[in-house]
## 1
Amino acid sequence: MTEYLLEVRNVTKSFPGVKALKGVSIQIRHGEIHAFVGENGAGKSTLMKILNGNYKKDDGVILFNGKEVDITNPVQARELGISIIFQELNLASLLTVAENIFLGRMIRPGEKTVNWKRIYREAGELLNKIGYYIDPHRIVSTLSIAEKQMVEIAKALSFENTKLILMDEPSATLTNKELETLFTIIRDLKKKGVSVIYISHKLEEIFTLCDWVTVLRDGEITGSKPVFEYDENTIIAPMVGREITNVFPKRESDTLKSDELLRVTNLNRKGVLNNISFTLHKGEVLGIAGLVGAGRTEMSRAIFGADYRDGGDIYIAGKKVKIESPEEAIRQGVAYLSEDRKREGLVGINTIKKNLTLANLNSVLKFGLISGKREVIVSQNIIDKLAIKTPSANQIAFNLSGGNQQKTVVGKWLNTEAKIFIFDEPTRGIDVGAKYEIYVLINKLVKEGNGVIMISSELPEVLNMSDRVLIMNRGSISGELTGQDRTAENFIKYAL
């Protein structure tokens, strides 16, 4: 057995207008948990897709178990012992959990037809093994994002010869309890000699879990050493090319004297939402916090008209309005950034310019027709404003990194006449530098007299960015935190 399970030597990869990897070299030991960190677009996911056979490298050498390999497709990667968990979940939504786990290999040698009893039994055993049981007969489309993530993990572990697992943002949708389960799984893999490449923007996870850290910026490695040789400051600087001393930018706030922008009274949906009432003022960031399943997203979707409600009234600038569809919400000046950008935020097969102008086609019309010239001007202005990394406005949205996809969704709503912005997990899957840019943008929106409702599972984020924080528990508002009361202890008290 060689010292290194995987060696990557001077690998390069280019796309039209972008050099994604510039001579990258790494070494992964047997049983090592190796973190990759860097800004969105740094090349982390590109390297993972080369190792999984989704992309073909332009140049360089890859050695696996001491032998040079040319991985041309995912099937070959599986045969070598490489499994991947994608940042953007890659499941067949109309099939069952068990069918997804064993997709493409349901008939074993010696079998002539699918042994469904065995398939469902083994799927159940795998889910029990990772400590997160889901009925294997459930259709994947009925699962939450966190449940889908656990199915992806079970799928990766289902390959018996697995030697290396590539995890691209595996914790982005998980609760603390689910995260503990994931860490236990990864540590058990380490004990068995399985190596893990772990990509995450959450630095606390890196320091808790990983043995080694490699930092990428703009397709190049800017640092690679044992995790104990880094701290938060020394890991951020090579990631973003600068030090970020204030994670949460400060702003002046005086919401008590400002005008009411939005009022929600007695919002109800049977079994989901219970008599929710609150106000949002001009120039205010109103945080919404709570544990997973508390009803935060369901509340925001009901306000936006994406989901029905049994009762409740909505007032904008003191006037009662009727919002029963997203179209009506947009017309009333309400924007909603979904937590699920892939399914609800983007038209992935369309260009960036189409996505950025989709919510307000009037901005690009000329004589009643869409003007290609105006599309480019409007979209390029937003691209520059949000520093979206792309060779042009004509790039396909799904070709962007996860963080730049998120920026595109944010940009879409900036191209509307919205005054009320509902941001559901706005920094999920975004690196520390891009997070700061989003925070600055939120502060700018409220400074201009808009109101922002910010839903976040990251407690430091929601406590530091908000003027007030509403805590939700089982579909109800259980508490409100202001001023010095905005503490983690008070959050837990109301959340439970």
## 2
Amino acid sequence: MPELNEGGVERGCVELARELVKKGVESVVISKGGKLVEQLEKEGSKHIEVDVCSKNPLSAPLRIYRLREVLKELRADVVHVRSRVPAWMLFFAKRGLDFKVISTVHGFNSVNFYSRIMTKADRVICVSGAIREYIQKHYNTPSGKISVIPRGIDLVRFNPDNLDSSFMVEFKRRFDLEGKFIVSSVGRITGLKDFETFIKSIAKIQKIQDDVVGLVVGGAREDKLEYFDGLKKLAEELNANVKFVGSQTKIAEIYYLSDVVVSSSKKPESFGRSVAEALALGTPVVASEHGGVLDIIRDEENGLFFKMGDAEDLAKKILKASGMRFDGYGYVKDNFSLEQMVNKTLMVYEELA
């Protein structure tokens, strides 16, 4: 992994590692490091810090050498690469070493030589049927080496019966949310998430329901701080009641206390992990009508789709979705459980090893 900070891919990596350890697999994660390393190690995996994140070509030879030395010492059966920079570094570091490579294609990456590396592994895991079709169309990846394995939702963590009630009480107090109509959008601060449309929709809802509060839940990397400042300025200009609560570890609790969760991404989500997590906690989701979320949301049952970039349509759909009631936990358990993902992934490992 490039690093272990926040994001669905990173959390998925940590969860998979934990479950593999439970099944007796020796699990080692190589990354630049980050906030999730402590949790990873507490749950039984080993972490080795190598900068497989930087795109600086000048430092690449030394970093590739370091990775190669680590791999020689590990003598792994399989190496599972989950991003393009680590995949390229692994490509050069592997020469002369004997192990199989698995890649996971998590998103609709730009079609170019740089992205093609993710399809060059011995086996390729796609997180949705849409991703499989995408790489087959653009890279002619053979069907025989592709496995479709949707991201798994941790049904212990995302279980309405296992939530931290004291956190929810304190969180509501801290951000003045008691008795409010709470609409959340969860994800790293980046333009692809289209938080602008989310903020505009909250401003429109305020004219109809003045107790609405929009929550933007996620941190901003240093290279996104200017964009982050622009979002805060937009909220001020529109007088939108939007609170930027930063990166949070108790994501399940935030989904649960929300009345509606929004996924307004401009770029199609390869799967839509946050959507499935929110649904597991019984919270309806309004999402842009494209990508992997089309396979997760049942329109008019547990959520709604809106026209991408249309704040007016998003506001209407948020208000409509707020009255939905459904068995989200049962739905996710039957279709997108972590256990299913782990077992299918382990089968791929065993086939290669």
## 3
Amino acid sequence: MPYLKIHSAQIYHEIYGDQGPLLALNSGGRHRYLEMAPLAKLIAAKGFRVLVHDRRNTGASDIIIGGPGGEEDQWADDLHALVRHYTTEASFYGGSSAGARLSMTVKRRHPQAVQGLLLMRVTGGAFAAGRLPNIYYGQFIKAAQEGGMQGVCDTEAYRERLALHPASKERLMVMDPQEYIRVMSSWLDQFNSGKYYPVMGIPQAELEAYQVPTMVVPGNDKTHSSVNGLTAARLIPNAELFCLPIEDQDLDLIPFPQWAEHYPVLADQFADFMHRHA
């Protein structure tokens, strides 16, 4: 499976399909690219190339705690450079939850590179704002405060990542815990700065200024309630809203693979959208 060095990090990725427009399809949370693989393969079979990847600090890609800007900005710059390695043409970007937010961050930082957006399970609201900062950053800051870098490496999330990419452990273990805490706290502050926007991380005025074809598929749990997707579709000019036959559930989070029965219809909708806007 290919690695490509992007901005000093080895990025683990895969492409399904060998012809047609390119779609970068991104997982939610800090999940691996495998979360998107089944849907990506269905879309690729309809005449597209679909790129999936492990973002830096996730999955089998390098863990590098540092660098310019916020972590999500780094993810966007990495993804833009990764896509540009395979095509110089504007491409489609999409994903679920954090993957949708990543796609919108690419749009912010590299607008000319985005042909269209496919946004699933948009995140927003007070529940998500109260839950996600600790999941992304707070728990690891606490681990470093209490147990140093060994404490970080012993967390369940880092154990999984280091098993996939053991070379990152040496880099982590020689890091000053205070520097780790400083960087993660800075990333947490930047994440918190946008957590109460109607669409988490994306200012309303930015959405209202979009001039890019966009499809929105609302979610159905407390972190990705349908109102967040409906709000995004309302704010983005000429956005296409596609609602699955689902209802909101009183659950903190419904894992994306539980949408598996809907993958065929999502693949149909996304393929139609991209054929119309390619």
